[in-house]
Amino acid sequence: DADVTQTPRNRITKTGKRIMLECSQTKGHDRMYWYRQDPGLGLRLIYYSFDVKDINKGEISDGYSVSRQAQAKFSLSLESAIPNQTALYFCATSDPGSFGPQHFGDGTRLSIL
Amino acid sequence: KNQVEQSPQSLIILEGKNCTLQCNYTVSPFSNLRWYKQDTGRGPVSLTIMTFSENTKSNGRYTATLDADTKQSSLHITASQLSDSASYICVVSAKNSNYQLIWGAGTKLIIKP
């Protein structure tokens, strides 16, 4: 089984819909991250969490929200999806000594029509 | 402005040949630099991480170099294999309160038989 599992792997939806992307991990890491990847651009950090009660905005958090339900689970929500949120979304984890994400999921490809 | 630029954008080489990918950065203050490999449809996988004092680090056929004075890094791949076909991403960490990561857009490498 994958260490970091993202569901769904692919999603097509319409403008204005609420969408939740889910991430679960078996690494036992406290730190979890959500990134967005667009063609020709580097990954951009949306939100990160250093433990269950800790939520922090990244560089592009507008239009997104997150929930850290447990150490192993970190979900990303788009409250009212818009077409420019079409992208590849990655969840990642790390331990405290790593200075950043170590283990990535395989991504959710999200298309908003 | 903190930036990471990679070159070339894409590269095609024959199996068995060597290649070198470049990364230039303007991140300050510098903490560390890492190279990731991202296969199509998968999340990034860490290859190497280098701190200020490290000039060279190897991981099998992958060798990363760092020149902190000129703010340049390279990733050299020896005796390329078909499985090396992927995007290679340079990421620089800034030594601020959150160790902000600045991601390059990646170099897409294609190995032809």
Give the uncertain stretches of chain A in residue-range form: none
Distance separating the two termini of chain A: 32 Å
Percent helix range of chain B: under 10%
| Helical residue percent band of chain A | under 10%
What's the story with the biggest beta sheet of chain A? 7 strands, mixed
Biggest chain pair contact, residues each? A-B, 18 and 21 residues
Main pleated-sheet profile of chain B: 6 strands, mixed
Mean pLDDT of chain B, as a whole number?
A: 93
Number of strands of chain B: 11
Order of helices and strands of chain A: EEEEEEEEEEE
The end-to-end distance of chain B, rounded to whole angstroms, is 41 Å
Helices and strands of chain B, in order, run as EEEEEEEEEEE
Low-pLDDT sequence parts of chain B: none
Query: How many individual helices of chain B?
Result: 0
Can you describe what's shown?
The complex is a heterodimer of chains A (113) and B (113). In chain A, 0% of the residues lie in helices and 51% in strands. With 113 residues, chain A is mainly β. In chain A, the strands form two sheets. In chain A, strands 2, 4, 5, 6, 9, 10 and 11 form a seven-stranded mixed beta sheet that branches. Chain B has no helices and eleven strands. The interface between A and B is medium-sized, with 18 and 21 residues.
Could you write a compact summary of the structure shown?
The complex is a heterodimer of chains A (113) and B (113). With 113 residues, chain A is mainly β.
List the helices and strands and how they pair.
The complex is a heterodimer of chains A (113) and B (113).
Chain A: E1 4-7, E2 10-13, E3 19-25, E4 31-37, E5 44-49, E6 56-57, E7 64-70, E8 73-78, E9 87-94, E10 103-104, E11 108-112
Parallel strand pairs in A: 2-11
Antiparallel strand pairs in A: 1-3, 3-8, 4-5, 4-9, 5-6, 7-8, 9-10, 9-11
Chain B: E1 4-7, E2 10-14, E3 19-25, E4 30-38, E5 45-51, E6 56-59, E7 62-67, E8 72-77, E9 86-94, E10 101-103, E11 107-112
